[in-house]
Each structure stands twice: as C-alpha cells, then as structure tokens.
Specification:
The protein is α/β, with parallel strands linked by helices. It has helices spanning about 20-30, 45-60, 100-105, 135-140, 155-165, 175-180, 185-200; strands at about 5-10, 35-40, 65-70, 80, 95-100, 115, 150, 170-175, 215, 220.
C-alpha cells in the first residue's frame, strides 16, 4: 500500500507566501516536510504544470510527494479533491478529499485520506465554520473509513499536539508556513511537536537495584 500523508503537510498559497513559492516550499522541506499539496488553482494549466514540475524536483531529493488539489493530477498520480466531487473518485495512486462534517466523511469510499476543517479559526479560508476545536475533531475522526489530517488555523506546537491527541494522523498547514519568516525553522518546530505527540512513551519499567526478583524460593 502506498504511504499516506502524515506529520506536517504543507498546503501552498503563493498569494500569502513571504517569498517565491518554490523557495518557501524548499525551505519547509529542509525543515522536514515531506508532503506538499499544490493549490494555486487560479493559474492556467500550463503555469500550474510548470510549478508542479519544480515542486516535484524539490521533493524528489528527500523522497517526498506532491499532491495536486483538484481532479487533474498534472502528469502525476496524487490528487486532493474538494468535498463537492467528483464522485466516485478517480483511480490514481493517492486520492485525498476535503471534509467538514460527518456527512462528508461518511461519503468517502476509495479515498486514501481526508482533511477535516476548520479545526481552529483561520484567516486563509474563513468560509466554513464554526471551528471544530480538538473535541469536535475527536468526535469526527472515526466517522469515515480513512485517516484524517487536521486542517485550519494550526500554527503552534501545542495545537499540533492537541490534534494528534484527538486522533489526527497529521496536520495540514498553510498560513503558518507560507507566512513564516523562516519556513525551515517553523516546519522543524511543528514537526518535532508532531513526533513528540505521535510517539508513545514506553511504559516498561526499567529494572533497578530495588526491583524485587522472584525465584522458586520466593521474593528476594
């Protein structure tokens, strides 16, 4: 089975990026990002295809994956579809879907993952709401048949940890990385928070000098 997005997933928006988009993505990749969703749906296909080629080259060096928003994979095999369609989803190597409530999650069929939004208030896409919050996220994570990425307003390590605790397999981040003065540092910080939250603590006690041992004659 093909890998599914996890950890910190970057969504692009050249209109809010502080530097040229490819530079911002490359910096985020340097900071540990391995999944990028190319939005920029207002661009002509030829320009968007050229951008996809550049971003795939950036990700190829680290074994990362570019996912294209919309049904056209731009000569690739990974897409992220809107909640409105198409249904059924196309047969490609990787297919994700945007979801916002239980009804949309329940419609999922052969998709590989879903984003669930908005988890927190967001400046980028305020049209959906009210925000789910961590508890709302927790209530919806198990509704659909696929892993869920938390999306919307996630900017800080404690927010990443709260999303993972609620059951998300990753966080999709736009503004916090596009607007960051140092995308590499921000990606590393958010990625560390994810790894910390996603890695279970070992509960096996370490033996000590005071730990009793049991023999056939009893406890020593």
């Amino acid at each position: 089975m093909r890998d599914r997005p996890a950890g910190v997933v970057l969504l692009t928006d050249r209109r809010v990026a502080r530097r040229p988009l490819v530079e911002v993505v490359a910096a985020a990749v340097d900071g540990g990002v391995r999944w990028v969703v190319l939005r920029e749906k207002d661009l002509p296909r030829a320009e968007r295809l050229a951008l996809a080629v550049e971003l795939r080259a950036v990700l190829a060096d680290v074994g990362g994956t570019l996912i294209v928003a919309g049904p056209d994979p731009l000569d690739g095999d990974a897409v992220h579809l809107p909640a409105a369609g198409p249904y059924p989803p196309p047969r490609l190597g990787l297919v994700g879907r945007s979801c916002h409530d239980a009804a949309e999650l329940a419609r999922l069929t052969t998709e590989d993952y879903a984003t669930l939004s908005p988890v927190l208030p967001t400046r980028t896409k305020p049209g959906y709401g009210p925000p789910l919050g961590p508890e709302g996220l927790r209530a919806l994570v198990g509704v659909g048949p696929v892993p869920v990425l938390a999306l919307g307003g996630i900017e800080a390590p404690d927010q990443v940890r709260a999303c993972v605790a609620a059951g998300a397999t990753g966080v999709a981040v736009l503004g916090a990385l596009m607007r960051a003065p140092d995308p590499a540092a921000t990606a590393a910080t958010l990625g560390s928070a994810f790894e910390e939250a996603a890695t279970p603590m070992s509960r096996t006690p370490h033996p000590t000098a005071e730990t009793p041992t049991v023999t056939r004659e009893g406890t020593q």
